[in-house]
Amino acid sequence: MPGEREPVREEGKAPLAPRGRWGRLLWGTWDWKRPLKSLAFIYLALCLVACGFSNRLIFHPPPARYGRGASHLRLLNDKEGRQVAAFWYPRREADGPVLLWSHGNAEDLGSLAPLLAEIHAEGFAVLAYDYPGYGLSEGSPTEQGCYDAVEAAFTYLTAEEGVRSSDIILVGQSVGSGPACWLAEREETGGLILISPFRSAFLTVTRIPLFPGDKFRNIKRIGHIGKPLLVIHGENDRTIPFAEGKALYERHPGPKRFLAIPGARHNTIWHAGFEDIIAAFKSFPPQSGERR
């Protein structure tokens, strides 16, 4: 038609149809490298999120549920001089095990206090502490901050309360499995109890190693921990799958025991299995040949 321009024709190529011209303007020329470049960009973006925002994704400190007037409260200091809040339920006899408790996410000592009181009533001494940014503990939650806090709690028990390290049983629930495994690899203690643990923070989500900067690499440490181990996991846990606890159990050299809680989800494990868990605590450590 008069006034209509014919599409530009490149040397040796057919005329470019109007529809093809708009496709090229919008999407560019097809190149087999483009999908790889897109995947690389997406991966780098996810790495940036994983490395830059991992602390916000991992830690969820609730508003403080206790104050300075709380019974059992002790205020400790870590090696950086930061305040670490702890609840101390002392031994009723000179000897006996002391549980050094690393709690789960989205809770603090105030919400944990009723459970700690019940465990104390069963005859266990307990020292539980809050991570940085939780409760009255100072600072912001980080992996290293959690390690510093559990180390401060361990030092308090051995230096201030005179507890032998061999009488200390490390207990880590959920995210608390991270500092518990870290300390178990470094110190001579009476054993390690893990409740709803994970292989590492990132592997809980990705299942396979994908990103650098992973946190709380329990699966790397558990094989070097020769102390007795008890792993407790809910069979219906969808937050940290049952297979995570089994993987840690299988990697440990023993002596060890695995306790499955039928029907228990991540946040109902104590409600569903309190009696079985307390019985397992009382029979800890497992015998040298026990591997079930």
Question: Whole-number radius of gyration?
Answer: 26 Å
Along the chain, the helix and strand elements come as: HHHEEEHEHEHEHHEHEH
CATH C-level class: Alpha Beta
Shape estimate: globular
Number of helices: 10
Structural category is alpha/beta
Residue-averaged pLDDT, rounded? 86
CATH superfamily: Alpha/Beta hydrolase fold, catalytic domain
Strand content range? 15-25%
What topology, given as strand order, has the largest sheet? 1-2-4-3-5-6-7-8
Let me know the number of strands.
8
Please report the distance between the alpha carbons of the first and last residues. 86 Å
- Which bin fits the share of residues in helices? 25-40%
Q: Any idea what the CATH architecture is?
A: 3-Layer(aba) Sandwich
